[in-house]
Write a structure and sequence with these properties.
Length: 531
């Protein structure tokens, strides 16, 4: 029994010794180029896209060398001009003063020969292999236990386009791409501040995905930054293919249906959140950037609110709150009123609804559940299918199925109207549309069982859950609970920019002042135009 437990403990605590070579337990490179070549070939066995090019450099003293890179991840034109030509041609034709030999070759090549802006050393085989798989070119020299990593990355990428999930009328049309360097450069271009820190780490034992933690040092809370690093460092998984993987590993309440980690495709939106004190998490291979802490009120804010006139932006924000309540409660209220509380419906409307539902075989609760399922099916089909086919599905679902169901007497016309209004309202707050689908189902069930009393119980439970949530230690319902009147100027309405001279206290308490006080525009006295 004890022996079995010892064996199990040994298996579970076994350390990963990737790329370790017999006789070199630390995995360091060898002075012998032949030994290093054999190790590289062993690691990349049956990897046809990995190119190993052997050659000799020098005129008087001939030194063996080879480079390793992945075909498709390297810019071959720059490789030829900046690395291969200087090594094989320029060094062969150049006159030497006798200082070039196996001991000095590495230093001379690194400091005098290569015209590459970014080079670094690799002392271990695993570091060299990771660099090759990341798109770098690694140079090995005979007699040197250190490899030279040259950044010659160049692969096919998608250009900067307008994101489909956050379309705006006024504002930046640029969106993040799948290339990490492009995304970090877009943030750096908008925040020209040396305090903008970009810290890189690798997550995923198999994928070794590059992840960047971005924050502004003199604005972001140091405790939140450290908590982000802590939660990312504890992720021990094989793969990270999208930021959604990371989101589920770092959120505060993994069992909640409400998102406590934000995401965005727009660089200007992420930059604005960072300027309020949030931390951004960029993942290589995806255009979606995570932001923490995330508050519930952010779901009703849009980057366009801050580019438009504050009166119009405030009206739109109030419309979003209205759409949220319609999308969550409209079917439930319809079921409750038609099933339990007919006396609350005006008589003329009640007669019209009764006439429309005459002959329908199902009660209102069953109608709501059927129409809810059909709507979710149509929405999923419209999203997943190619765009022309998706439009056809929408037409078939809205006209053929809906009209036929009403004509056949299976579904009442008022229910079709309620479901259509609910569907439209759900897309107004698209960032939490999946949350609305879950809430809508729960409230319909409560309304079908207990009427308006069940809806009130559901609302009380929802508010209790909202108050209990936190995002990286920050109350999720801030600044509503705990109440902070000074931060209410950007919750239900968007106050003019000259009034928002402080950052949200719950986020940017370290550096609260955003701009100078009393910047309200005033007409100058004696202005010729005002006489």
């Amino acid at each position: 029994m004890f022996q079995w437990m010892k064996n199990l403990h040994r298996i579970l605590t076994k350390q990963d010794l990737d790329y370790k070579t017999p006789g070199e337990k630390d995995g360091s490179l060898s002075y012998s180029i032949q030994s290093n070549l054999e190790k590289i070939k062993e690691v990349f066995t049956h990897a046809n896209d990995v190119v190993i090019r052997q050659f000799e450099i020098g005129a008087d003293v001939r030194i063996k060398a080879f480079i390793v890179y992945v075909d498709g991840l390297v810019d071959k034109e720059i490789l030829q001009i900046s690395l291969m030509k200087p090594l094989m041609i320029d060094m062969h034709l150049a006159k030497t003063d006798g200082t070039f030999n196996r001991k000095t070759a590495f230093t001379i090549i690194k400091e005098r020969v290569l015209s590459i802006s970014e080079v670094k050393d690799a002392h271990y085989l695993q570091d060299a292999v990771d660099a090759v798989l990341s798109g770098d070119t690694v140079l090995f020299l005979d007699g040197s236990p250190v490899a030279l990593v040259a950044s010659l990355r160049g692969w096919a990428t998608r250009g900067i386009t307008t994101p489909d999930t956050e379309v705006v009328v006024r504002g930046s049309r640029e969106g993040f791409t799948e290339t990490l360097q492009t995304n970090t450069s877009q943030l750096r271009r908008r925040i020209k501040n040396p305090n903008l820190k970009l810290e890189t780490m690798k997550i995923g034992k198999q994928t070794k995905t590059d992840v960047v933690i971005a924050y502004i040092k003199d604005i972001a809370d140091d405790k939140i930054v450290e908590e982000v690093k802590k939660r990312l460092s504890r992720i021990d998984t094989d793969s990270i293919l999208e930021s959604g993987y990371i989101e589920e590993f770092i959120e505060d309440n993994p069992l909640s249906f409400l998102p406590t980690v934000g995401n965005s495709e727009k660089p200007d939106s992420v930059a604005a959140k960072m300027l309020e004190g949030r931390v951004a998490i960029l993942t290589d291979g995806t255009p979606f950037v995570l932001t923490v802490p995330y508050l519930f009120v952010e779901a009703f804010q849009s980057s366009e609110d801050y580019y438009s006139r504050h009166y119009y932006a405030s009206i739109l924000r109030l419309l979003r709150y209205t759409a949220f309540f319609i999308g969550a409660f409209a079917p439930a209220f319809y079921v409750a009123l038609t099933t339990y509380h007919q006396e609350m419906i005006p008589p003329a409307l009640l007669v019209s609804m009764a006439a429309a539902r005459e002959g329908t075989p199902f009660p209102a609760f069953v109608e709501a559940m059927i129409m809810g399922v059909i709507y979710e099916i149509l929405k999923e089909a419209g999203v997943r299918l190619p765009r022309p086919v998706g439009q056809a599905v929408s037409i078939v679902g809205a006209l053929v199925i809906g009209e036929s169901a009403v004509s056949a007497g299976l579904i009442g016309a008022p229910m079709v109207i309620v479901v259509a209004l609910t569907a439209i309202s759900s897309f107004v707050v698209s960032s939490i549309s999946d949350t609305l689908s879950i809430m809508r189902l729960i409230y319909v069930i409560l309304a079908g069982a207990f009427g308006l009393f069940g809806i009130m119980i559901g609302i009380a439970g929802f508010l209790t859950h909202l108050v209990s949530l936190r995002s990286f230690g920050v109350p999720y319902l801030s600044p509503l609970a705990p109440l902070n009147m000074r931060d209410m100027k950007d919750v239900f309405i968007r106050a003019p920019w000259w009034m928002m001279f402080t950052r949200p206290r719950v986020l940017g308490w370290k550096n609260q002042v955003r701009q100078k006080f009393r910047l309200m525009p005033e007409a100058r006295e004696g202005d010729e135009n005002n006489k």
